[in-house]
Amino acid sequence: MLRKSGLLALTLGLLAAPLSAGQHSVLLMGQGYFPSEVYPVIGDTVTFENSSIVAMSATASDGSWDTGVLQPGESYTLEVTEGMTQSFGDTVNEGSIATGLIAYEPAQAGDAQN
Fold it and tell me: Which residue stretches of the chain have pLDDT < 70?
């Protein structure tokens, strides 16, 4: 009986647990990002990983967030927040044409926040 009660409590606890945030990945690939667009929701994270042979960055178009200089093999995780700038590019390499977009939907008035 005690074993069944414990299992029931564990099951109810798992069902009541909040949903975890989603995780998204963007590879820095020298001449661009892959994928160049990600579609998270607020609270998700985006991990930028430099898989190229040169240092790169992912920097918001207005400079409000920045991965910093990522050397080959390094990564940086960014949390998606309401109002953050969505477009980004590489500010390390002069003349870089690498651009990307974090296309999240802003919260609507009356939406429940977790």
Answer: 1-19, 107-114
Query: In this predicted structure, what is the pLDDT of residue 29?
Result: 96
Q: Which two tokens stand for residue 65?
A: 């967030």
pTM: 0.76
CA-to-CA separations, 52 to 12, 22, 28, in angstroms, rounded: 45, 25, 6
- Nearest Cα to 88, choosing from 38, 44, 40, 21? 38
User: Tokens in use for 8?
Assistant: 């029931």
Q: DSSP letters of 38-86?
A: E---TT-EEEEEE-SSS-B--EETTSS-B---B-TT-EEEEE--TT---
